[in-house]
Design goal:
The chain is α+β, with helices and mostly antiparallel strands. 15% of the residues lie in helices and 22% in strands.
């Protein structure tokens, strides 16, 4: 009977087989344990659809690696930016647009309010101004009764009226409220009611009656 002789593998063959076993064993171990590291992934083979949504967090990104070209236009919002992190040298002033509500107040440029002064006081009873009515007169050494408009357009009253019993004076057009307005104002011994009607009549009863601090928005 013929005997079959067994040949031992050469050292080169043994080393090659060992290397193949280790390589295959490493991959199979990775699949078995569910942990594949970067050494087992070919470069440029992982695509966005291979990554679970919201699976990459901040700690997965190297510092200073995300650039503006990596961010889709109009996707960053205020809550995505840490407070006090944007400096003036990071803002292109030529790209800033004017804010309408900040630029104009009541149809007037906001810059105009910074330097605007209120109009002069219209003193009751002087030439060209409304006269006193119902026997009223200026109240002693206090501010003389009058009215004026501030830069925003609100109407203000000032002064003190003596012997007031009914209509003190009548405000001209442009200085009248849209409807009757009532105010609690100081009088002789207690507060009294001052009423300004839509036709401009300023009515009060007291001696004297203070007009200081009365202000309102005139009709359109």
């Amino acid at each position: 009977m013929k005997r079959i002789s067994l040949r031992h593998p050469s050292p080169a063959t043994a080393i090659a087989c060992l290397a193949l076993f280790v390589a295959l064993g490493g991959v199979s171990y990775g699949f078995a344990t569910g942990s594949i590291d970067s050494r087992e992934i070919a470069d440029n083979t992982v695509r966005s659809k291979d990554i679970r949504n919201n699976g990459i967090v901040t700690r997965d990104l190297r510092n200073n690696e995300v650039r503006s070209i990596d961010v889709r236009n109009n996707t960053l919002r205020g809550r995505d930016i840490a407070p006090n992190t944007v400096t003036d040298d990071q803002v292109d002033e030529s790209k800033l647009q004017q804010v309408p509500d900040a630029a104009r107040l009541g149809g007037r440029l906001a810059a105009g309010y910074a330097s605007a002064r209120p109009e002069p006081v219209h003193l009751i009873g002087t030439t060209g101004e409304p006269p006193f009515q119902s026997g009223s007169a200026a109240g002693g050494d206090l501010l003389p009764p009058g009215f004026w408009r501030d830069p925003i357009g609100d109407v203000h009253l000032q002064g003190s009226v003596a012997s007031a019993a009914g209509t003190i004076f009548t405000l001209p057009a442009g200085y009248r409220p849209a409807g009757a307005a009532r105010f609690r104002v100081p009088a002789t011994a207690a507060a009294t009611t001052l009423e300004i009607q839509a036709d401009g009549d300023v009515i009060a009863t007291g001696n004297p009656v203070s007009l200081d601090g009365v202000a309102f928005r005139p009709a359109g």
